[in-house]
Predict the 3D structure of the following.
Amino acid sequence: MTRYLITGAAGMLGQDLQHALAGRAVTALGRADLDIADAEAVDAAVSGHDVVINSAAYTKVDDAETHEDDAYAVNATGPKLLAEAAVRHGAKLLTVSTDYVFDGHGTSPYPEDAPTDPINAYGRSKAAGEAFVREIAPDSSYVVRTAWIYGAHGPNFAATMLRLAASHDTVSVVTDQVGQPTWTGDLAARIVELVDGDAPAGTYHGTNAGQGSWFDFTRAIYTEVGLDPERVLPTDSTAFVRPAPRPAYSVLGHDGWSRAGLAPMRDWREALHAAVQAGALQA
Ligand SMILES: NC(=O)c1ccc[n+]([C@@H]2O[C@H](COP(=O)([O-])OP(=O)(O)OC[C@H]3O[C@@H](n4cnc5c(N)ncnc54)[C@H](OP(=O)(O)O)[C@@H]3O)[C@@H](O)[C@H]2O)c1
């Protein structure tokens, strides 16, 4: 029986990964059980597993601007140590990365092999983590980039918009950042399909298909949960200046899935409908 290790198991994706692997031989370790930046602890944790799925990360994008060393320890050194341990113990490694490895100046979907050029500290730390994994475990690792994720477990944009609906008549949301809202339920299921199959090692884009702005996403959320979408008003990024710059165009290409014998993940609007039906988002 395949033995799976999930790191960052208490996070938003980590919890959906546990659900997607229910009934299997799984060790699920949250941050309190395993610090992925601790080499000895990582080696001990990886031992005895066939598949390691790394969903641990430093995800505070704005804080990373002033704590880049902390972000690097989790997002770059962590995957490096996991890759070294996975190779030592003969395990497959899948690490989750981000659209923020790209600069966002594109106008057509970024292919899996497009050059990375992050514009913030979080993106730099994640790009470094990807590079370590590819270098150390070129034949036995997957890098799965995701973006704009939301789910039942944990703070995320969709949950914030629904919380705001309870106390505000209207919300203003930017139209000038475009990406692919992605349900962690779909992503977790896709990650399990990938590690269970025999797809070639390499980089895959784990985002729901299609594209939309944060404004489009928020209107779609409101519609799905039965709120009036006209309560969502358009604005642009000049109204929301934050410490870390965000890529304006975060659309990832999905051609790589054919190498794995898999279709791209479904359209984000269809996934959002399923997420609401599943109770992952509630008004
Ligand atoms: N959220 C997004 O929209 C988004 C977009 C693109 C890519 N991603 C990537 O998707 C993956 C999953 O993200 P998520 O939204 O599920 O993140 P999350 O909810 O923040 O989960 C990450 C988990 O990692 C834990 N962690 C932090 N430092 C750790 C360490 N040194 N050792 C072990 N665990 C540690 C965190 O614990 P604490 O909470 O205690 O710190 C948290 O439970 C990450 O790789 C992230 O970079 C996310």
User: Anything to note?
Assistant: The longest strand covers residues 92-98. The mean pLDDT is 97. The chain is about 35% helix and 15% strand.
